[in-house]
């Protein structure tokens, strides 16, 4: 009964976290446009980055709670899920996705580089403040690049810009103030539930983070990606997913580590990191011909189910 109770708490608190993050991003997007921010800047600094707010909130609360293993599991699991499941399903739904030179020349390089840097940083089984600062610097470099590309109109990332610029509504301010508070409590009870479920199920907290939390935080991106496919803008969805992975690696690893050294569990060293590298390599080779097909999408999805099935036996 206790297991069911804490599973319900996990689902409810995680739902609250996701919804609060969505309201925060939407209100910040509206406020940015109403204040006259260029749409490309809103798209990169608020919308694209905002999709990873749940991962960041969970990771910060995990460090404060002393469960730092969750951070590594969260980042690795989210990145593997984004490549195997989200990119895979997007490719299947689209049938064929043409990849532009900008994604191949820079975004893909950032994705591969960030993955290898993460592996190198975690091999000693801890993630220190000095490494965190280095990762945050990498995130800043990527954001500056993304802002430059968007301003020049060369990239395919989805941006906001559909909203009006009338007077600022008081409700926007209220949502911006209230939603982070709700996110905090949602993240706090998510972590509490994960710790309890880990105890009852006798599995590591990083395993739950790499599976359930990673899948939950990736579902909004799946919805956005499928919506982009329906609108004939599948490549934009891929750009956003790649950007989300880069943000996860640099910021979701870097920022929480400012609150304390992160512990890297053995399961993530022997299984999580190799699967992350496999995911990165598979995607790298899948788009070597400037194209991703539905058959390659099926291959990625198969690898995702392999990842989940093997994760609990590590």
TrEMBL record:
A GO biological-process term: intracellular calcium ion homeostasis
Lineage: Bacteria, Candidatus Ryaniibacteriota
Name of a matching Pfam family: Na_Ca_ex
Gene Ontology MF terms in the entry: calcium channel activity; calcium, potassium:sodium antiporter activity
Protein's name in the database: Conjugal transfer protein TraR
Predominant localisation class: membrane
Record organism: Candidatus Ryanbacteria bacterium RIFCSPHIGHO2_01_45_13
CC per GO annotation: plasma membrane
Positions of the Sodium/calcium exchanger membrane region domain: 6-147, 173-308
């Amino acid at each position: 009964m206790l297991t069911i109770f804490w599973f319900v708490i996990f689902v409810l608190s995680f739902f609250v976290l996701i919804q609060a993050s969505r309201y925060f991003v939407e209100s910040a997007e509206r406020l940015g446009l109403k204040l006259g921010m260029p749409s490309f800047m809103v798209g990169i600094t608020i919308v694209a980055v905002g999709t990873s707010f749940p991962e960041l909130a969970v990771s910060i609360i995990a460090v404060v709670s002393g469960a730092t293993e969750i951070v590594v599991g969260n980042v690795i699991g989210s990145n593997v899920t984004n490549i195997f499941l989200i990119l895979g399903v997007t490719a299947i739904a689209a049938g064929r996705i043409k990849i532009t030179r900008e994604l191949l020349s820079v975004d893909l390089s950032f994705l591969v580089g960030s993955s290898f840097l993460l592996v190198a940083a975690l091999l000693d089984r801890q993630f220190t403040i000095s490494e965190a600062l280095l990762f945050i610097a990498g995130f800043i470099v990527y954001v500056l690049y993304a802002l430059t590309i968007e301003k020049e109109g060369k990239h395919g990332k989805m941006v906001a810009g559909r909203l009006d610029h009338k007077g600022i509504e008081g409700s926007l301010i209220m949502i911006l103030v209230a939603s982070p508070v709700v996110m905090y409590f949602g993240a706090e009870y998510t972590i509490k539930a994960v710790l309890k479920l880990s105890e009852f199920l006798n599995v590591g907290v990083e395993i739950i983070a790499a599976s359930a939390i990673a899948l939950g935080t990736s579902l909004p991106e799946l919805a956005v990606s499928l919506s982009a496919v329906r609108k004939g803008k599948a490549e934009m969805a891929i750009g956003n997913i790649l950007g989300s992975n880069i943000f996860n690696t640099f910021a979701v690893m870097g920022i929480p580590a400012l609150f304390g050294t992160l512990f890297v569990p053995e399961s993530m060293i022997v299984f999580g990191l190799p699967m992350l590298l496999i995911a990165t390599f598979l995607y790298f080779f899948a788009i070597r011909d400037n194209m991703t097909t539905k058959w390659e999408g099926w291959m990625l999805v198969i690898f995702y189910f392999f990842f989940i099935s093997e994760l609990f036996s590590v």
